[in-house]
Design goal:
By secondary structure, the protein is mostly helical. It has one domain. The chain is built from 3 helices and no strands. It starts with 13 loop residues before the first helix and ends with a helix.
Amino acid sequence: MGGGRGGRAAYGGGRVVATVETLVPEDDGSAEAAMREKLALRYNTVRPFLSLLG
């Protein structure tokens, strides 16, 4: 990877990470909560175990 030219350093390192962090929203867990809600409604067998997930 990187073709022997320093890998990640050749692409701006910290600048790339900073750019990605500004473009990707923080995960607030809402997607996981929505998935648990759908699972609870659809599959009665998983309902008791969803409370273990938090």
